[in-house]
From TrEMBL:
A UniProt-annotated Pfam family: GerA
TM stretches of this protein: 394-413, 419-448
Any one of the GO CC terms: membrane
Keywords linked to the UniProt accession: Membrane, Transmembrane, Transmembrane helix
Stored PANTHER family: LEUCINE ZIPPER PROTEIN 4, SPORE GERMINATION PROTEIN
Source domain of life: Bacteria
Family: Belongs to the GerABKA family.
The protein's name in its UniProt record: Spore germination protein
GO biological process, one term: spore germination
Organism (species): Paenibacillus protaetiae
Keyword Transmembrane helix: yes
Length: 485
């Protein structure tokens, strides 16, 4: 900042700036006066509800009184360009702005809407005072991931608090934080975090390049940024991970990943990711390794069951009945007597009801939502069997599918699994077991073709690496993971 004291054409530009700001009713333009012998007039411009009044009252106003004393002893002609008013302030919280500079003007508007105070002095001098006090909530337990033994603090919407939660857990000079401003209208602050020596330099440079290339009007949340930064913009599966917990973010940074914090979003996105990383839970770090290994194995089975079981069962019960044991076949045949719908139509109806109840449980308040999901599922399921709309066997398959999907922590991949499940079911309903295998193989090939920031989405299976396979699927004991490398 700084520069000459009086700017050419500055007064006209300041008047134009004040006119633009006065069009918004939540922008306060307050005329003030300081000094006794020769009063100095100035104006304070700030955004309603975003400024700390104590900072203005206890610090800014006394500073303006001291400036008025110095100002009253000099005339306009006596003030040479080398005399900068900024130097008369006793704090670096007050900086001078060039009203004729487009870049400084752009930053000035962003600062005002972030809670800072603009000081207009003598119609052509602009100063910015840092008195931001934006409304924000304190860190509390994240609603994205359940914490049993882990920390209870979670990310909030303020980027400074989120960075403090991460820095407080990782007090290392190797932790680097680089800011970007994205969006011409929103001017959203974004922080790129990485650990030098842990993260791949190529990965860091790729993330920087993708952030710098963004040319958008506004950025509202981290999910928008996740889609913009992904290798495939229309990928069916999430190519970046997210979390609402600082401890899991620190774990990811220590494992060589990058983290991106978006101002206004209570979640942090991380890259690269893979299918085996997505099924991991932040709580895994706080539980015994043998239990975590079992849970991860069950989650992986849950993904497969949730995607494939409905299509597999429909293909067997409707087309390839010769593959069923005779006792099971007789049970299925008896349960389907008198039903008006085909097996595939039954399954589609059951899955539709399941998705409907799950959506209702998510949108309703937590206590009511859980009641609707459980009680509604029991009542509707029993009523459907009594009404002859579905068979008990089909209801059991749909219930197992629903329970299997609940093992996934990442809700984005939960939606992806639901779409793949319906596609495999559709192929199985038309082509039987052949359609089931075609759908499953196509899904596997598609997963192998995905990349997250240049890394294979199916790593360490594709490309196969036995050395990385065991720690990728299971969890090592802490005494092996804590060794310094």
């Amino acid at each position: 900042m700084g520069g000459p004291m009086f700017y050419p054409r500055g007064a006209a530009r300041v008047k134009s700036i004040k006119t633009m700001l006065s069009e918004s009713d939540d922008i306060i333009i307050q005329s003030m006066m300081a000094g006794d012998a020769k009063p100095m007039t100035y104006e304070l411009i700030f955004c309603m509800g975003m400024v700390d009044p104590r900072s203005v009252q206890d610090f800014l106003l006394p500073q303006m009184e001291k400036l008025a004393e110095w100002w009253s002893k000099r005339s306009r002609k006596e003030l040479a360009p080398s005399h900068k008013v900024e130097e008369r302030f006793e704090s670096k919280l007050i900086t001078q702005i060039d009203p004729t500079s487009y870049e400084e003007e752009k930053q000035m508007f962003a600062s005002i809407f972030s809670g800072n105070v603009l000081i207009v002095l003598e119609e052509d001098l602009l100063f910015m005072f840092d008195a931001a006090d934006q409304p924000s909530r304190q860190p509390e337990e994240s609603t994205m991931e359940l914490s049993l033994r882990g920390p209870r603090d979670g990310f909030v919407e303020k980027i400074s608090i989120n960075l403090a939660l991460i820095r407080g857990r990782l007090k290392s000079t190797d932790l680097h934080c680089e800011f970007r401003t994205i969006g011409y209208e929103s001017m959203t602050r974004v922080a790129l975090l990485y650990l030098s020596g842990k993260a791949d330099p190529g990965l860091i440079q790729l993330a920087k390049n993708r952030l710098d290339r963004l040319n958008i009007n506004a950025l509202q949340n981290s999910s928008e940024l996740e889609e913009l930064l992904s290798d495939r913009k229309n990928s069916l599966f999430p190519l970046m991970d997210y979390t609402g917990r600082p401890d899991y973010t620190v774990q990811s940074l220590l494992n060589g990943r990058i983290a991106i914090v978006v101002d206004g979003s209570p979640s942090v996105i991380m890259a690269p990711t893979s299918l085996f990383r997505v099924i991991k839970s932040p709580e895994d770090a706080h539980l015994p390794f043998y239990y975590v290994s079992l849970e991860r194995f069950l989650r992986l089975i849950g993904v497969g069951v949730s995607m494939c079981l409905p299509g597999f069962w429909v293909s067997l019960s409707a087309y390839n009945t010769d593959q069923l044991p005779f006792t099971l076949l007789s049970t299925v045949a008896l349960s389907r007597q008198g039903l008006p719908l085909s097996a595939s139509a039954e399954m589609f109806m059951m899955l539709f009801m399941f998705e409907l109840f799950r959506e209702a449980g998510v949108r309703l308040p937590r206590a009511v939502g859980q009641t609707v999901t459980v009680v509604g599922g029991l009542i509707v399921g029993d009523a459907a069997i009594r009404a002859g709309l579905t068979s008990p066997t089909m209801l059991v398959v749909a219930a197992i599918t629903a329970v299997s999907s609940f093992t996934l922590v990442n809700q984005t991949i939960n939606g992806s699994v639901s779409i793949v499940r319906l596609l495999i079911l559709l192929l199985s309903s038309v082509l039987g077991l052949f359609g089931f295998f075609v759908g499953s193989l196509a899904t596997l090939v598609y997963l192998c073709s995905l990349k997250s920031f240049g890394y294979s989405y199916m790593s360490p299976l594709a490309p196969f690496s036995f050395k990385k396979l065991v720690p990728g699927l299971l969890q090592n004991p802490w005494y092996k993971r804590l060794r310094r490398r």
